Amino acid sequence: MAKPERVDPVPAYLVAHSSPPDELTLRLIAETKALGGVSTMQISTDEGALLTLVARLNKAANAIEVGTFTGYSAICIARGLVDDGHLLCCDVSKEWTTIACRYWREAGLADKIELRLAPATETLRALPKEPVFDLAFIDADKASYPTYWDEIVPRIRSGGVILVDNVLQEGRVADPEGPADSDQVKAIRAFNGKVVADPRVDVAMLPVRDGVTIAVKR
């Protein structure tokens, strides 16, 4: 008889030993899960705790997020900003961000968060080119990561932080000899190479969930 496949205990352990979500975000997580398969786009609670901590450690006042979905990551970032901080959220889905806006209001964060519904590349290119952002989080269309990166890095101040989600692609980026890669895996592998070679930033890749790259602008 074949042995049952061993379940990796580390993800659950990480969640249990990171700051937990509160009652409001638990309701948002549950409502998002009820959407079905798309709910996998939502970040995990340990990653949410990381976003809040990084924003707080950086004393971030001006942040930008590319890919908002139902708004959990935005709540995590906004809660870490200084009292008069501002978060600009870029997304294209009115359906999903309608859920986000409802929870932002309930969380008392509506005055801190601005939503722009448009292709993120258009929103980014329309922004002033000055380095005014303290923090950026990229978690959207993976093929467009290089474009988002090229638009965001010049707009981040020296000492500012860029976080990028899903950089491990379930580990497939680290196994070029494995099964045939999808276009998405190939795109993220190329993006990871681009980031680590970028002389404008210092970079560390963390094995949090599906991989989070943290880059600090020099």
Notes on the structure:
With 218 residues, the protein is of the alpha/beta class. It has helices at 10-16, 23-33, 45-57, 72-80, 94-106, 120-125, 145-152, 183-196; strands spanning 62-66, 86-91, 113-117, 133-138, 156-165, 201-206, 212-217. Strand 1 (62-66), helix 4 (72-80) and strand 2 form a beta-alpha-beta unit.
Q: Give the integer mean of the pLDDT values.
A: 94
Largest sheet: 7 strands, mixed
Radius of gyration: 17 Å
Shape: globular
What structural category arises from helix and sheet content? Answer: alpha/beta
In brief:
The chain is an alpha/beta fold and 218 residues long.
Explain the layout of strands and helices.
Blueprint: H1 10-16, H2 23-33, H3 45-57, E1 62-66, H4 72-80, E2 86-91, H5 94-106, E3 113-117, H6 120-125, E4 133-138, H7 145-152, E5 156-165, H8 183-196, E6 201-206, E7 212-217
Parallel strand pairs: 1-2, 1-4, 2-3, 4-5
Antiparallel strand pairs: 5-7, 6-7
Helix pairs in contact: 3-4
Q: What distinguishing features does this structure have?
A:
globular; 218 residues; alpha/beta; seven-stranded mixed β-sheet
